[in-house]
Amino acid sequence: MDSITVQADMTLVVATFYKFVKLPDYVEIQQPLLSYCQAQGIKGTILLAEEGINGTIAGSREAIDSLLSFLRSDSRLADLEHKESTAEKPPFQRIKVRLKKEIVTMGLADIDPNEKVGTYVSPQDWNKVISDPEVVVIDTRNDYEFSIGTFKGALNPATESFRQFPEYVSNHLDPSQHKKVALFCTGGIRCEKASSFMLAQGFQEVYHLKGGILKYLEEVPAEESLWEGECFVFDERVAVSHGLEPGSYEMCVGCGHPISDTDKTSPKYEEGICCPHCFDSLTPEKRERLEEKKRQMSRRI
Predict the structure, then answer these.
(1) Does domain 12-99 have CATH number 3.30.70.100?
(2) pTM for the complete prediction?
(3) How crowded is the C-beta side of 205, counted as CA atoms within 13 Å?
C-alpha cells in the first residue's frame, strides 16, 4: 500500500518528462525508482532504456516535486526538463516503471539522439518557422492523433505507429528537394528521434519543436496560435486544448480511439462497447467481454 494517499478532491499535478542520455545501468535503476514512486503515492508510467528516460506521472504537488528532485540528484539527469498540467481526477490507476529497448520505439538500433539531433525551436519561434513557405511541416504522431488536432498546414504521415515513420520518409521525402523540414509531436520525444533519423538520411536543415505541442499550448496565447483542434494525451484526460485545459474528447472503451460528440451520434456508437472506428471490426467474443464489463461497472454505481 502506498505510504501517501492522494485525497479524492485534491488537484493533481500531471508531469511529463524525457531525456535522451546514456544510462547503461538502467536495469539497476528500475527498482529504486519504483519504490520511491510508491512511497510518494505517484501513479503513471516511466520507461527506462539504455538511451534514456521517458515518463508521464501524476500525484500531489509535494510528491511530484520530490520525485523530480530524486531524479535530478543523478548527475546525468540534473538538467531534466518537465512539463506540467493538472487533473481533478486521477489520470492513472497505478505506477509502472518499465525496462525497454527504446524510450520511444522507432526500431532502428543505429539512430541515437545522444549523438545528433536537429535544431530545437522554442514555442515562441515556432510560428515563424512553420510559416516559411520553404519549410515542410510534418506531424510525427500517429493518424488518430492527427485527426483531432494539428498545426496549420502540417503533413499527416498517416502512420499507425512510430515504427512506420522511416518508411514514410523514404517514400515521400527527398533530401535534395525538401531542404527545410520542421517536425513536431506531443511532448518532443518522437520528433527529437525523428530529427536524428532524418539527419542520418541526408536532410540538411531539420527543425523540431522544443517541448512539443504541450509546451506550445502552454506558452503561446490562443489568439497567436497556429494550432487547430485539440491535442491527444496518453492518459484519462484524452485531450487538452490551449492552456492545457481539458479537451472535449472521450476515449472509446473498445478500441482506445478518441471520440467526439459527433461520433456519439453515430449508429455505430455504443457507450462502453464500440465507436465508429471499431464497430465493423468488433468480434462477438470481444463484444461479450465488453458487455460483461459494462454490466459489472453498472452494479458498482
Answers:
(1) yes
(2) 0.83
(3) 13
pLDDT score for 301: 56
Instruction: Quote the CA–CA distance of 190 and 194 in Å, as a whole number.
Output: 6
The mean pLDDT value for 259-287 works out to 93
Stated length of the chain: 301
How large is the average pLDDT for residues 263-291? 93
> What contacts 159, CB < 8 A, 6 or more positions away?
142, 143, 165, 168
State the amino acid at position 284 in one-letter form.
P
Q: Which residue in this structure is represented by grid cell 506521472?
A: 57
**Extents of the domains making up the chain:** 12-99, 119-229, 258-299
Is the pLDDT assigned to residue 287 strictly greater than 70? yes
What letters, b where the CB count within 10 A reaches 16 and e where it falls short, cover 223-247? eebbbebbbbbbbebbbbbbebebb
205-209: strand order across its sheet: 119-121, 205-209, 180-184, 135-139
Is the pLDDT score of 68 beyond 70? yes
Share of residues in the chain with pLDDT > 70 (%): 96
Please state, in angstroms and rounded to a whole number, the distance separating the CA atoms of residues 28 and 200: 31
Catalytic (active-site) positions: 185
CA 163, CA 112: separation in Å to the nearest integer?
15
CATH number at 119-229: 3.40.250.10
